Amino acid sequence: MGRHTRKLISGVILMALAGAGAAWWLTKPRAWDAAHWEGLGEPDLANGEQVFWAGGCASCHAAPGAPDDQRLVLAGGRALKSPFGTFHAPNISPDETAGIGDWTLAEFGNAITRGVGKDGEHLYPSFPYGSYARLTAKDVNDLWGYLQTLPKSANVAPPHDLSFPYNIRLALGGWKLLFLTDEPRVAVNNADAKLARGQYLVEGLGHCGECHTPRNTLGGFEPGMWLAGAPNPEGQGRIPDITPASKSIGSWSASDIASYLETGFTPDFDTVGGLMVEVQKNMARLPPSDREAIAAYLKALPAR
Amino acid sequence: MKMRVLVLAAVIAGVGVTAVTAAGEPQAVRQQLMKKVGEAAGALNGIAKGQKPYDAEIVKASLSTISETVKIFPNHFPPGSETGMETEASPKIWQNMEDFKAKAAKLGGDAEKILAELPADQAGVGAALGILGKDCASCHESYRLKND
Description:
Largest sheet of chain A: 3 strands, antiparallel
Order of helices and strands of chain A: HHHEEHHHEHHHEEHHH
Distance between the termini of chain A: 33 Å
Structural class of chain A: mainly alpha
Shape of chain B: elongated
Number of helices of chain A: 12
Low-confidence stretches of chain A: none
Oligomer: heterodimer
Helix content of chain B: over 70%
CATH topology of the largest domain in chain A: Cytochrome Bc1 Complex, Chain D, domain 2
Number of domains of chain B: 1
CATH superfamily of chain B: Cytochrome c/b562
CATH class of the largest domain in chain A: Mainly Alpha
Shape of chain A: globular
Number of helices of chain B: 6
């Protein structure tokens, strides 16, 4: 048994104990109070569409290999590899049975910001709610309105293929207790509206940290390593460091970063590749001010 | 412990490989070819962004460089060159060589088409670069892995 496996198992046992003991209530799924989702009014569909692209929902929930004109059919099925097994993104189209057409705003909002499913179960953090936890109720309401305008699909995605003990949703309470937070990942000068917007997009909606930040054996972010680069979950290669200390983008200007997010070209005329291609295509749909805000935030990060 | 010895052996082997970087190795050749493609795309980008004046000769030369270079690019992936010399080639290339070649041909074909019509001004070069950029990204998405 490898050192990692052992560490992992003891961690899981610890988590199980924490969950099973007197502290059971600590790890039960925590939805928002109903009032959080009330009085939000008619959704702004144009903003909902921007939230949708910035959040990259189609990257996981569109059918695998869907051509550009089918990207709005959120039929699910895409396989996401992880050290814990393979997840399959579910159907989130407005279909009432196969999708989430019969959900309420509160159910949807609690799923995306708190990882609580329709039946009150814990959802897996491969659905990046650990980042989306930062979303405003307004953005969630607008996104929910927009999702309902998309085509329905009757597709049923395959079940997740996870090994024990990761196939037990209850254990996720321990993960959430340890890692689920809507606190800022780093301190930036929030008085600056551009930086604050960049922080919201990078730490929240754009969930950039889900790929660019290394994780510990329990699947939580390594402290002090925010966006500092990580192994590629799909196997070979690495996901680059995007802090100012990065060997590659450390020397890029803010406008180089914004231009990369828009066109995919790096300043030395390399082009975007791997998992970042989908992200870049989504970023290209945002207003230029959003790409500039992301760039400003990345430049303002503490160098590691 | 055994694990650590293995890792150490791998590290030493890795150092050995990078130490004998020879210019003629396929990994080095194909990286050089891609650099040429990148420089040509860079020249087009300078014009598209208005940092350099439109110059038909430079546009022609850059497009020809791209089309000619990607034609020979897939010939430099012989078995045995999967790793070493900091290659960023994905092992998937050798599993899907036909698709990899098709992606190279797509970029070459698009560059030739654009060359035949020859973009006449800054905006035309920008539009052309949009098409070519998608071809680059589509191959890098599946077949190129960053190491750092």
